[in-house]
Amino acid sequence: MFWKEYAFGLFVFIVMFLASVLYLLSFVVTIPGLVITVLLGLPMVFYIFSFLDLKRAMQKKRGKLKPTQRAVTIVLIVGFLYQILAPSAPINFFIRNYPEPFVMEDNRLSPFLRKGDLLRASRLAYRVDFIPLGRPLMYNLPTYFEIVRFKDTLDVKRVGMVVGLPGDYIEVADGELVVNGLQKYKSTAVSDQLGGYWELTEVGEYSILIAITSLGRVEKMYQTKLSDLIGKVGPLY
Known about the structure:
The protein is an alpha+beta fold.
C-alpha cells in the first residue's frame, strides 16, 4: 500500500491468508508432519522472496513517489490494527494462544522441576483458540506422566503429573501406575514420584486425573475438567 503496489500486495496477502487457514486446519484434521512443513514452508519462502522483489520496486520508485507523513501514519495504523484484530494475523493468534509464563512455587516435582524455575504452560499443546470457532478447540489430550499446569476447584493454579485420562480406572501402588488393570511403565525417575498408595479411582468422561506429589509420594489427586487444563509445562526458554 505504501509504495502503491496494490496488486502485488493483494497477491502476497492471499498467499499468507491461505497459509494461515492451512495451519489452523492442521489442528482439526490429522495431517502428517512432513506435509504440514511443506504446506507452511513454501508460503513462508515465497513471503521472504516477495519482499526482496518489493525492495527492488521501492528502489525504482523512490525518486518518483513522495508519500506524505499522513500517508505513512495511516498505513502503519492500518497494519497494526490488522495484526491485532484479524484472526488470520500472527500477532492476533499469539495473543489468544500465548504460553503462560510462571515460576515454580515449590520442590514437589524435584528433580524435574525445582522451586524458582522459570517455566511456561503451553496452551497450544492441547487446544487452539481461534475467533471463528467461538471457543477454544481441544484437539489433543496429555499423555500419562506428563507435567501440566491446571486450575483446581478454587481456581488456584497448580502443577502436577497426569496419571489418568477420561474413562480410566487408576490405582497407584509403590511407584507403579496401574491403568485399567495394566501397569504403565515410565523411567525410574518418574516412578519415584509415585510412591505410596492411592485407591482405585474412576476418571470422569470429560476430566483427567492429576497427581500432586511431595517427597516422592502421592499427596493428593485432582480430578480436573479438561476446560481447567492450562497447558503442558516446559522451560521458559
